[in-house]
Write a structure and sequence with these properties.
- The protein is α/β, with parallel strands linked by helices.
- The chain folds into 4 domains: 130 residues, Response regulator (Rossmann fold), CATH 3.40.50; 162 residues, 3-Layer(aba) Sandwich (Rossmann fold); 78 residues, Helicase, Ruva Protein, domain 3 (Orthogonal Bundle), CATH 1.10.8; 44 residues, Arc Repressor Mutant, subunit A.
- Helices cover 45% and strands 14% of the residues.
- It is built from 19 helices and 16 strands.
- The strands form 5 sheets. A 5-stranded parallel β-sheet has the order 2-1-3-4-5, with helices on both faces. Strands 7-8-11-6-12 form a 5-stranded parallel β-sheet.
- Strand 4, helix 4 and strand 5 form a beta-alpha-beta unit.
- Helix 2 runs parallel beside helix 3.
- The chain is globular.
- The two termini are 45 Å apart.
């Protein structure tokens, strides 16, 4: 228990109220004690309480009325009813109305402490689960443009169907947030939302990640492991960067989409699943199909519902609302800072905007992000009407001079590392700038010489 947890105690019997108040204070609670139900309801309107302990029979408003008022204000707040008239009917009625537990008079101190600990732990677990779920599924999207409102409207139309969805867009435009919204608006919302970035998993491990493996299937497979498809059963599986899959993995994914079944690596038993697929890519899959790099039949299966996310530079009216959304409470932009933010083309899209906003918010004074502060990180390089921002310093007069005589491996290591930093850790963007595949980049980053 901590002294920060505040209990509201309502009991019309002075001796009982004094006894319970002293007992709960000895447990480490701050206790506000009142003498009837009406005072309890008024007290809840004045301040926040972590827990309510109320007698059932009281003048002006009984314990059930206090219970109802407490749950209206905060459905997660535990409410314990104390009664000397404890019958099964009273207990059942109270629990149906949302009471977290019932305590009979005369109250035993050990039982009271255990009960309060239990209901508060239950509330903490509920809030922790809700937080973790929000981290996984994501919160509400900030929508401040017609283009994004059209995306939201499309999601709401198709979410409750079983159709696969393919979200296209540049890196950092919010494809994962859209996938999470599809899940959240569907009838699978209470089921798992499982994510896998296909570009971040080495080819040799991707099949095991998707379909799982049996014990002994390969070196290090000491026990059976469920893959993402099994973990997402009855829910949604989000496959990010699906265009990075090899031809062999594309064929196996196609089979699951067609048949709803697969075998684990090293196994021969067919596993059936019911999974809704949402995929995303920043590649031009139509061009990849034409070039023979991506299966046309898989693209048809994935793109039953296509959703295209425009880059941030094409929805400039969202830049400032998004930037404000990323700010910590109590911090704001001045007009000059907002103007600078609007003028940049944001090649890294929303992800880049978030990174910049978090940086300047940490460095601002008096809770105001000024235009000068933004300019320290976003340096104008064009005329005001076409002002853009660069995050890298200007190159030296002789950019190759410093490289002469250095080992080639050292030059490659530094080039990869600096490009990765320039892209804010985005491996797909890094690979594009370096002109190599994501898997090649991954292998270079795995090499001990590249850190």
């Amino acid at each position: 228990m901590t002294a920060r947890e505040v209990v509201l105690l309502a009991d019309d019997e002075p001796l009982s109220r004094e006894f319970l108040q002293e007992a709960m204070q000895s447990f480490g609670f701050e206790v506000e004690a009142v003498g009837d139900g009406r005072q309890a309801i008024e007290a809840m309107a004045r301040r926040t309480h972590d827990l309510v302990v109320t007698d059932l029979k009281m003048p002006h408003a009984d314990g059930l009325e206090v219970l109802a008022a407490a749950k209206r204000a905060d459905a997660d707040r535990p409410v314990v009813l104390v009664t000397a008239h404890g019958t099964m009917d009273v207990a059942v009625q109270a629990m149906r109305k949302g009471a977290d537990d019932i305590l009979e008079k005369p109250v035993v101190l050990e039982e009271l402490e255990l009960l309060l600990t239990r209901v508060l732990d239950r509330r903490r677990l509920l809030r922790e689960n809700r937080y973790l779920r929000a981290e996984t599924v994501g919160g509400e999207m900030v929508v401040a443009s017609k283009a994004m409102q059209d995306v939201v409207d499309m999601v709401q139309k198709v979410a409750r169907s079983r159709a696969t969805v393919l979200v296209r867009g540049e890196s950092g435009t919010g494809k994962e947030r859209v996938a999470a919204m599809v899940h959240r608006c569907s009838d699978r919302a209470e089921r798992p939302f499982v994510k896998l970035n296909c570009a971040a998993i080495p080819e040799a491990l991707l099949e095991s990640e998707l379909f799982g493996h049996e014990a002994g299937a390969f070196t290090g497979a000491g026990k059976r492991r469920d893959g993402r498809f099994e973990l997402a059963d009855k829910g949604t599986l989000f496959l990010d960067e699906v265009g990075e899959m090899s031809a062999a993995m594309q064929a196996k994914l196609l089979r699951v989409l067609q048949e709803g079944e697969f075998e684990r690596v090293g196994g021969n038993r067919t596993v059936e699943v019911d999974v809704r697929i949402v995929a995303a890519t920043n590649r031009d899959l139509d061009a990849d199909v034409a070039a023979g790099r991506f299966r046309s039949d898989l693209l048809y299966r994935l793109e039953v519902v296509p959703i295209v996310l425009p880059p941030l530079r094409e929805r400039r009216e969202e830049i400032v609302p998004l930037a404000r959304h990323f700010l910590r409470p109590g911090i704001d932009f001045d007009p000059d800072a907002e103007a600078v933010l609007r003028q940049w083309s944001w090649p890294g899209n929303v992800r880049e905007l978030q990174n910049v906003v978090q940086r300047v918010a940490l460095l601002c004074d008096d809770g105001v992000v000024t235009g000068d502060l933004v300019r320290r990180w976003l340096h104008p390089t064009a005329a005001p009407a076409e002002r853009q921002v660069v995050l890298m310093p200007a190159p030296p007069q002789d950019p190759l001079g410093a490289l002469v005589g250095r080992p080639l491996a050292d030059i490659e290591r530094e080039l990869v590392q600096r490009t990765l930093e320039h892209c804010g850790g985005n491996r797909t963007r890094t690979a594009e700038l370096l002109g190599i595949g994501v898997r090649t980049l991954f292998n270079k980053l795995q090499d001990r010489t590249v850190r």
